[in-house]
From TrEMBL:
Organism in which the protein naturally occurs: Codium fragile
Classification via Pfam families: GTP_EFTU_D2 (PF03144)
Protein name: Elongation factor Tu, chloroplastic
A GO MF label: GTP binding
Gene: tufA
Keyword annotations of the record: Elongation factor, Hydrolase, Protein biosynthesis
InterPro entries per UniProt: EF-Tu_GTPase (IPR050055), EFTu-like_2 (IPR004161), Transl_B-barrel_sf (IPR009000)
GO process annotations (BP): mitochondrial translational elongation
Gene Ontology CC entries for this record: mitochondrion
């Protein structure tokens, strides 16, 4: 299969033992199991390249879910395909019904 096994880093550890060792003040090098998770994430960051994003084109986000939250309003979640957006900017909602304009009132990002 031409899998580059000799080049792939292998990090051993136990997520369960790391979770059991966590405290509010857990920091790098505080515990060998917690350190294994830090080592894993460092290796992932070094080995897997960040995807290239086209930030020069107009904003486009594929909507995955829409929920209504009391006191907050309608919240749309999805993946940004291209472009950039800021709070206060106007966007167009395009889909099966007529296009509708709305204003971005908040942004959150989950990694």
């Amino acid at each position: 299969y031409e899998y580059p096994g000799e080049e792939i880093p292998i990090i051993t550890g136990s997520a369960l033992l790391a979770l059991e060792s966590l405290t509010e003040n857990s920091i790098e090098n505080c515990n060998k199991w917690v350190q294994k998770i830090y080592d894993l994430m460092k290796t992932v960051d070094e080995y897997i390249p960040l995807p290239k994003r086209d930030t020069e084109k107009p904003f486009l986000m594929a909507i995955e879910n829409v929920v209504s939250i009391t006191g907050r309003g309608t919240v749309a979640t999805g993946r940004v395909e291209r472009g950039m957006i800021e709070v206060g900017q106007t966007v167009e909602l395009v889909g099966l019904k007529n296009t509708k304009e709305t204003i971005i009132t908040g942004l959150e990002m989950f990694q």
